[in-house]
Every structure is written in structure tokens, then in C-alpha cells.
């Protein structure tokens, strides 16, 4: 698997799984009816943000991550990131590879920590992955997320000092 900078030519491969994941409404705080232009604008970041794709040997996009300062100004030394893996390629280590890549990027860029602002507590695969990569749950906002099947569930803020 290769992780490389995403280009505009990658967006048509990202959009179908991005759209399906967002529309399902189980793991992201994006509006479930987000349209393609809004999705592209929110995911395909400009500097100081960065968007990457994980591709296989045939060049198939398996997943994507975006990384950016969590806030601006006096809090711009804390990074954040978001990840989406095409469900067809889940369980193959794509999320872990993207997570490791993003953490390495943040260290090289001089960030002091990384914070995930909204990890849905029922997304147990992601929570376990982030914990295995060194993140801690700093707090959980009770009923901070309205899951379409499970109702109101907690929303974790996760953090790792770099």
C-alpha cells in the first residue's frame, strides 16, 4: 500500500465511499445530505491542511485522510485529522496505515499534539485503533452524537501528545 498526496483526479474515487459513509450518519458529524461540492471542499484541503490517499499496487484508492491544524492562532500547534476507508477494503490495515502516516506527518511538521474532536463512541473499531496508536479519551460528551439506529450516544475527544 502506498500513501500519497491526494490530487483532484482522486476525488471521483473518494466521493462514492465518502458519500456512503456520510449518508449512513453513524460515524461523522457531517450533514447526512451533504452534496458532492460541499464534500469535496471539506475533504480536499488546501495548505496548511493536507489530504492523502492510500492506494494499492493497481492504484485503487482504498481510503483517505485529511490532516490540518485543529485550530488557528494560539492553538495552531495542535493537529487534527479525519479518516475514511472504503468499506470494501476494511480490515486490511488501511486505517492503521493512514493513522501512522498522519502521526508521522504531524511530528515532522512540528505539531506538539494531535486531537480528534468527535469520535463517536459506538465506532468501536476506530476507538480501538486510535487507542492502539497511543490516543487517550480525554472526555466524552454524553449524548453528543445522534446515531440513526442507536439514538443519542457519546462523542469522544481523543488526544495524543507528540
Average pLDDT, rounded to a whole number, is 97
- The helicity comes to 25-40%
- Percent of sequence in beta strands: 35-45%
Strand segment count: 7
Neighbour order of strands in the largest sheet? 1-2-3-4-5-7-6
Key descriptive features of the protein:
7-stranded mixed beta sheet, 162 residues, 4 helices, Aminopeptidase, alpha+beta, single chain, globular, 7 strands
Topology:
Blueprint: E1 2-5, H1 11-24, H2 36-43, E2 50-55, E3 61-69, E4 78-85, H3 94-108, E5 113-120, H4 124-132, E6 136-147, E7 151-161
Parallel strand pairs: 4-5
Antiparallel strand pairs: 1-2, 2-3, 3-4, 5-7, 6-7
Task: Explain what you see.
With 162 residues, the chain is an alpha+beta fold. It has a single domain, classed as Gcn5-related N-acetyltransferase (GNAT) (Aminopeptidase, 3-Layer(aba) Sandwich), CATH 3.40.630. Strands 1-2-3-4-5-7-6 form a 7-stranded mixed sheet. It starts with a strand and ends with a strand. The model has no long low-confidence stretch (mean pLDDT 97).
Summarize the structure.
This protein is 28% helix and 36% strand.
